[in-house]
C-alpha cells in the first residue's frame, strides 16, 4: 500500500485547502472547500478527480465550494451530523467515532465541539494524519463561537491523547499571529522560544507552518498547556481545573 499524497494549498486570505490522494485506489478527497476556484485549480494541477469532500464545520470559508464542486465532479459531500442542516450539498452526516472508508483506509471522526457546536475532526490513524479545521491550529486553537471553554477543553483532550507523531493539518495559517501571545503566557518555555524563531523565519520565506506534529504542539501550544505550573502561576490559577485555565488563556487571547 503506497503512502497517501497530500496537497496543501493557500487560499482566501489565510485559509489552507487540503487534498488527500490515494494513488492505489485513484481516489481523492478534499478537506473542506474554502474557495471553489482554488480547489478546482489544485485538482487540475495534480491531475486528480474529486471523489469526496469532508467538511469539518459550517463556516463559509470551509464550505464555499461544496455545491459547485459537487455539481462539477459528482463527488460525495460528507460532514458533521450535528451541523448537517448548515452544510451545503451534504450527502452523508457522520459524528463521533463513526468510520468512513477511503480506499483501503479508515477515517475516524472525532467530534470536537467548541469553535462551532459540533465540528468533525478527521483522523487517518494508519497514516498518522489529522485534519482539525478550525478547532486546533499550529500554536493556537479556534475561537469559541458556539461552544464553551469546558466543551473545547474536552475536545482538545481527545486530540492530546492521540499519538505524538500525528501530523496535523489545520484550516488557517495563523501561526505567526500566535507567537507573541504564546510568549506572554509562557515566557520561560525554551521549546516555545525556539519554535517562535523558526516560525518567524519560515513565514518570512513564505513557507507554510502546516502541517505540525502533535508532540510539538503539546510542548509549545499554550492552549494545550493548561497543566503547566508556569502558566498556572502566571495566571494565579494554581488550584483551578485545567478547563478553567484553558478558558482564561482563550479569554486573554480574544482580548488581545
Ligand atoms: Fe471556522
Topology:
Elements: E1 5-11, E2 15-22, E3 27-31, H1 36-46, E4 52-54, H2 60-63, H3 66-73, E5 76-80, E6 92-94, E7 99-102, E8 105-111, E9 120-124, E10 129-133, E11 136-137, E12 140-141, H4 149-160, E13 167-170, H5 179-185, H6 190-204, E14 212-213, H7 214-220, H8 229-235, H9 242-255
Parallel strand pairs: 3-4, 4-5, 5-6, 10-13
Antiparallel strand pairs: 1-2, 2-3, 7-8, 8-9, 9-10, 11-12, 13-14
What does this structure look like?
This protein is an alpha/beta fold and 256 residues long. Helix content is 33%, strand content 24%. It contains nine helices and 14 strands. The protein has helices at 36-46, 60-63, 66-73, 149-160, 179-185, 190-204, 214-220, 229-235, 242-255; strands at residues 5-11, 15-22, 27-31, 52-54, 76-80, 92-94, 99-102, 105-111, 120-124, 129-133, 136-137, 140-141, 167-170, 212-213. The strands form three sheets. A six-stranded mixed sheet has the order 1-2-3-4-5-6, with helices on one face. Strands 7-8-9-10-13-14 form a six-stranded mixed sheet. β8 and β9 (120-124) form a beta hairpin. α4 packs across α9 and α5 (179-185) packs antiparallel against α6. The longest helix is centred in the last third of the chain and has 15 residues, at 190-204. Bound molecules: fe (ii) ion.
